Amino acid sequence: MDAARFVDMGQFAEFRESVLTRLVMTENDLHGLRGAEQEHRAMEDRLAVLEQASREHGAEQRGRRDRLWVIVIGLTTGIVCPLIVTTAITWLHLRALG
């Protein structure tokens, strides 16, 4: 056997320690990424809930605005317009008499 194939125990221990250190660092990075990924998913879920709430609020506002227009048009055509027409006809009759 060739003597160059053998490694000194000190070199082996040093290399093993560096590999273990890198492994621990990689595992720590992995745990950090998992935490960040979970946080990212939680943020996406919160954003989806907020978008849904915004859509519902917009639909509610449009419904409220539509109801307001229906009320305004109903009052205008049901009460205001007949009063104006009746007033105009009465005024014309009174003017024709006098």
Question: Can you put this structure into words, describing what you see?
Answer:
With 98 residues, this protein is mostly helical. The chain has one domain. It is 91% helix and 0% strand. It has one helix and no strands. The protein has one helix spanning 9-97. 0% of the residues are buried. The model has no long low-confidence stretch (mean pLDDT 89).
Give a short summary of the structure.
By secondary structure, the protein is mostly helical.
List the helices and strands and how they pair.
Layout: H1 9-97
Please give a handful of descriptors for the protein shown.
98 residues; mainly alpha; 1 helix; rod-shaped
Low-confidence runs: none
Helix run count: 1
Number of strands: 0
| Oligomerization | single chain
Distance between the termini: 138 Å
Helix content: over 70%
Rg, nearest Å: 41 Å
State which percent range the strand residues make up: under 5%
Q: Determine the mean pLDDT.
A: 89
- Largest sheet descriptor: none
The ordered H/E elements are H
Which structural class best describes the helix and strand composition?
Answer: mainly alpha
